[in-house]
Amino acid sequence: MFRSINKLSTHLNNRYVMGTLSRGIAEKRSSMEEYFKDKSFIVTGASAGMGKVIAGRLLAMDAHVFAVGRDIDSLPSVPGLKLTKVTVDIGDWDSTYSKILEMGPVHGLVNNAGVAHIEPFMDTTQQGWDDTLNINSRGVVRASQAVAKNMIAAKINGSIVNISSTISERAIPDHVAYCASKGAVNQITRTMAVELGPLGIRTNNVNPTVVLTKMGLIAWSDPKKSEPIMKRIPLGRFAQPNDIADAVIFLLSDYSKMINGMNLYVDGGFMTG
Fold first, then answer.
1. Which strands sit side by side in the sheet containing 64-69, from one edge to the other?
2. What b/e readout covers 158-180, taking b as 16+ CB neighbours within 10 angstroms?
3. Ramachandran region of residue 158, left (φ > 0), alpha (ψ -120 to 50) or beta?
4. Are residues 208 and 53 in contact, defined by beta-carbon separation less than 8 angstroms?
5. SS3 content of the chain, % helix, strand, coil (to 5)
6. CB-facing half-sphere around the CA of 17: CA atoms within 13 A
7. pLDDT of 2
8. CA angle at 163 for the pair 177 and 30, rounded to the nearest 5°
9. Which of 21, 99, 138, 189 is the most exposed, fewest CB within 10 Å of its CB?
């Protein structure tokens, strides 16, 4: 008798599990692109390179984009789309907070603004160190504080994506300030994930290797410099700006709503070796 009851219980449990799985498989979801329609996002460092591409991708999905940069004339100009251009020096503690707070509640923030002072360790300057850490690390904190405050007030379950780098963990010569700044970003992101997660705000990193923006093409054109890194990339190429934008779009969307506090390596396998 007990065996019969046990078999019946197992049968019913299996039917429940299969029914749940079947409903999950059959569940219809909107496309990732539809998530962005009529939502608002801030992209810092939107004047060029990855930031400009990310802003353009969001605009193409009918999102409202606050494009942030130092030079308003270099920011995207797309007539007819939901674009607001804002001049902010992300390295300035006070103006970064006040200007981003003024933008009001948004659904996502991309902390992309960054600089790189290429200086050997023994020749690292105070100006190079301070500028790099102020923009690449401190700026992430200050912009995120303003965005998170607005999200919390508006009860928005938002997403913050910080652009870090694989050299936050794998050092290369002549980049001591940059390596330090991106290492800081990794820990900033983890701390934000722990503290903001309970408030419904996710924080994640995108960690590229070399990205072939206009500046990247110039900086890595010397084979002596680029080949040692290229040899460690199983896919055999450097990233394009759209490769980074793809990862950012995913982490901003509700397709990643259970992802929080992670490094997403967009590196062709560089970090596996």
1. 83-87, 64-69, 40-44, 108-111, 159-163, 202-208, 263-266
2. bbbbbbbbbbbeeeeebbbbbbb
3. beta
4. no
5. 55, 15, 30
6. 6
7. 47
8. 175
9. 21
> Could you read off the pLDDT of 85-126 as tens digits, one per residue?
999 999 999 999 999 999 999 999 999 999 999 999 999 999
In angstroms, the CA 198 to CA 153 distance is: 14
Confidence of residue 78 (pLDDT cuts 50, 70, 90): confident
Distance CA 136, CA 131 (A): 8
- Is the distance from CB of 200 to CB of 259 less than 8 angstroms? no
Token pair for 75: 């920011």
Catalytic residues: 178, 182
**Three-state secondary-structure class, residue 213:** coil
What 3-state class would DSSP assign to 155?
coil
